[in-house]
Amino acid sequence: MFDARLLDYMANEFNEVLKKKKNTNNDVRELHKAMMELRLQSNKAKHILLANHEIPIYIDSLIDDVSYQSHVSVAKFE
Question: What mean pLDDT do residues 20-44 have?
Answer without folding.
Answer: 94
